[in-house]
Every structure is written in C-alpha cells, then in structure tokens.
Amino acid sequence: MARVRLRAVLAAVGASALVLAACNGAETDIDTEETAETEPAEAAEEPADDEEPAEAPPEAEGEPIRVGIITSTSGFLGTYGNAYLDGLEAGLDHATDGTGAVDGRPIEFEIVDDGGEPDQAISAAVDLVGQGITILAGSVSSGVAVQMAPFAEENQVLFISGPAATDAVTGINEYTFRSGRQSYQDVAAAASLVDDIDGSTVLAFVQDSEFGAANIAAVDSVLGDEGATIEAVEVPLSATEFTPFVQQVSDVDPDLVFVAWAGDTTPAMWETMEQQGVFENYTVTTGLGDVATWPLYGPAGPDILFLSHYYSTAPDNPVNDAMVDAVGADSVDLFTPDGFVAAQMIVQAISEAGADDVEGMISALEGWTFDAPKGTTTIRASDHAMLQPMFTASMLNMDDDPANIDVDTIEVLPPEATEPPEAG
Fold first, then answer.
1. Coil, helix or strand for 411?
2. Which of 38, 259, 338, 424 fits a 20 to 30 Å CA distance from 307?
3. Residue partners of 86: CB distance under 8 A and separation at least 6
4. Cα–Cα distance between 399 and 391 in angstroms, integer?
5. What are the backbone angles phi and psi of residue 150, rounded to the nearest 5°?
6. 383 φ, ψ (degrees, to nearest 5)
7. In angstroms, rounded to a whole number, what is the distance separating the alpha carbons of residues 290 and 397?
8. What would the pLDDT profile of 116-130 be if each residue is shown by its tens digit?
C-alpha cells in the first residue's frame, strides 16, 4: 500500500542530516505522475439525475504538522515496525475522513528507523525535537521505549509508545502514552486459560531483555499473586543455539510454561522446543505471534493455548473492518492496530489542543474513550494505561502456508478482565 502522505526519514546514528526516503526505499512524500505515454483514460460517467456526485476531500493547504515516528523498520524487530507503519497510515486516513489533515493542516510523519537501538532512537529524537517537532511515536522495542519516555519528559514533548510491551512505560511520566497493550495484559489473558494456578509451578521462558524482564514481572504479579511458584529461564538475545536453555524446562518440571519471545530467532526457538519434547510433556501458553510465524508452531500448534493481542478476525466491529480493508486482509498483522490507534491518538490530541500545546494534548488524551480496531478502548487518566479487549485463541489445523491455518477465538476478554493495577 502506497504511503503517499508519509515523509519517511531514514537516519544513521550520528548523521547530521536526515535523508528523505520511503519506508520501503521506493516511495517519497512527493507525488509523481506517470511520464510514459499511456492510452487516454475513458471519460468518467455522468452521475444520474437523481444522484449527487461524490465530493472529494478538501485540499489541505495549511502549514504541515510534522510528527516524529521513531520505530524499527530493520533489524531484530523490523517486521513489527513495518506492520505498525501500515496501521499508522490507515489510521490517519480513517481519523481524518481521508484528508490526512486537521483544521486544514496536513499531518506529515517523519519516519526514522531506530534499528531497535536505544542510542539510535535518542539520537533521532534529539534531531527531530531540535527541528521543532512536539509529538513523537512508534517505539517497537521495550528497551527503546524506556529511554524515550524520560527524554519526552525532559524535553516536554508528547510521546506515544507503540508495540513496546514493557509495563514500565505505564505511569512513567505525564508526557508518555502507549498505543498498544502491555505485558500485564498478556499475562492476564494467559491466566484466563489456566485452571488451578494456586500451588502450581509456572516457568517463564523469555529473552534476557527489557521485554523479557517485563514478562517475568507480569507473570509474578498475576500468577504469583494467585499462589503459583514462579521460575524463569532468560535466554541471551545473542543466542542462536537454544538446546541448553530449553533443557532447563525439564529441570524445573513446571505445570505451565509461559513463553514470551519476539524477533527473528522465533522459528529456531520453537523448533528446539519441539525437538526437546516440551509440547509433549508440558502445558505451554504463549502470545499468538505475527502471521508469518503461525506455521512455526508445527504439529504442536493445536496443543498450545494462545493469548492474543490481535489477529484480524478476532474483533468484530466497523473500525477493524475499515483497517483491514485499508491495509489488506493479507497484510494486516499483529501490530497493525498499534499504528492505527497511534494515528487516532495523534489526531485527537491535535484536534483538541493543537500541536503546539503539549499540555493541552495530554489533557485531550487522558480519559479518552474511543472506538479502536480491537473494540472500545480507554486511556486511563491516572497513568495512561491503554484499557482494551484481549483475546484467547487456538489453532484448529496446521499448514506451511499461514493463509491455510484456522485460528479460532476462545474468548474475547473485555478491558476490565485484563486491566493492569494503577502504576505509581
């Protein structure tokens, strides 16, 4: 899908100038026309006498409002960042009724690839804020998000974190919001799948990262409070051989294995789990990942209990339908709604307060309830937690082509079912 309203900026660490480019390297923010000779187009049909001609959206001619989008479009989490960007474009179109503008001022996204590196993200943020930008959004990496939040407070700019799931973002300061879910909500959704937690042993199998640490804390907070003993295996992000770590599962001999994993090592991790007989011997629950990973669960897929942030057929509402139609049913993915919601939040903040009034934008978002792709969503005023539906699901069959895999919704959990405790 063409990103005709996105001004993409790809920045290297320490670069003094930003290079305008599109996310896929093939598009820019300048509309171009065909120069090759083509057959003249047929004249449009005249509307019938009793039909009103469709009105085109009005041209946005005011001064552009520039918004900094610092996210991963390459590296470890690049797939997630690109799904976020697809949703961002669709959300802007939806929230502005196709104009891409607020009060006649077009919104332009300055997109910077942070490569999942906090230092690179902060370098980009310094550059963008130095240019006068007052809204930043997009973090995929939890490690990036927890660095960006203090930067936003120090520089008094609005920051809307993206798919980054760490609970630490919630309530960290008044300038920081999120457009996705947080780890507590993942674990609370998983808890709904399991009976008799009290007295059980739960093993958190995670990556040694901010994301992994947040999941261990969430498992302890949700399941530990229900009487479970919590153990953890933390795998270095640099690991490519997972057998020694997976063997620790049998050493613990848990009643439940909770897996929290992200990035391009996912296939190798699941393959090792299967080879070591984890699925045969233990109950495993994990987050349903992006669509491309679905075949990687292999024959054990139907035996895994899945919590889910999002998959395209889980919600049933007009906003989700609009997003799926805009992005394409084959392209909508796990973090597409995070971008869509970010755009809704940006438009809400600017519409209510204007891009120059950061305090006003914060007030416009606090306590806001709106229709999002996942369903009715509320930004809790006290700590900016994003209260939203979550899902549990199962796989009914497996195939090498994810398009042929049937995912069945077990339960749609209302926002209050997974609501995190208030931060601070």
1. strand
2. 424
3. 1, 327, 331, 332, 333, 336, 339
4. 22
5. -65, -35
6. -140, 5
7. 17
8. 999 999 999 999 999
Q: Answer for the pair 233, 258: CB distance below 8 angstroms, yes or no.
A: no
Residue 419 CA to residue 404 CA, distance in Å, equals 33
The residue among 233, 229, 234, 235 whose CA lies nearest residue 202 is: 229
Is residue 77 classed as helix, strand or coil in its secondary structure? helix
Q: Facing residues of 392 across strands?
A: 307, 411
Is 6-27+60-181+315-387 a CATH 3.40.50.2300 domain?
yes
Mention every residue, 6+ apart, whose C-beta is less than 8 A from residue 151.
122, 125, 159
Q: What is the CA radius of gyration of the chain?
A: 22
The residue type of 396 is: L
Query: What global pTM score does this model have?
Result: 0.81
87-110 per-position pLDDT tens digit: 999 999 999 999 999 999 999 999
Confidence of residue 59 (pLDDT cuts 50, 70, 90): low
Domain ranges in the chain? 6-27+60-181+315-387, 184-308+389-417
The maximal CA–CA distance of the chain, rounded, in angstroms, is 78
- Rounded CA gap, 225 and 223, in Å? 5
Long-range contacts, stretch 211-216, CB < 8 angstroms, 24+ apart: 211/141, 211/142, 211/143, 211/164, 211/165, 211/166, 211/183, 211/260, 211/262, 212/260, 213/166, 214/142, 214/165, 214/166, 214/167, 214/168, 214/182, 214/183, 215/165, 215/183, 215/186, 215/187, 215/258, 215/260
Length of the chain, in residues: 424
Q: Would you identify the CATH topology of the domain 184-308+389-417?
A: Rossmann fold (3.40.50)
Phi, psi of 388 (to 5 degrees): -155, 160
Q: Please check whether residue 112 is in contact with residue 81, taking contact to mean a CB–CB distance below 8 angstroms.
A: no
